[in-house]
Known about the structure:
- The chain is an all-alpha fold.
- Helix content is about 50%, strand content about 0%.
- The protein has one domain (about 10-65).
- It has five helices and no strands.
- The longest helix is centred in the C-terminal third of the chain and has 13 residues, at about 50-65.
Amino acid sequence: MGKKPQRHTWPEAKKLCRLNQLDIEMAKRLGFGPDTLIRAIPSPKQRWKLPVKDWVQELHFKQFGKVLGEKPPDAALPDVPF
């Protein structure tokens, strides 16, 4: 059996899931396709479910130990002499 063809494209998933380019890159690194992300959009009755953007960032952090585009804590605060 082969893979099912993708029904949605990345630009559609980017718009519907409110993702930026780094979020899409993280999703691709996790092995997700646009259909997977669109199916993961929570309905209003699913208040327990994270938004797709937060879900992808959380999974990427668990898998790789960092979120793309996020600055390390040391670089976030510049050293300012008092």
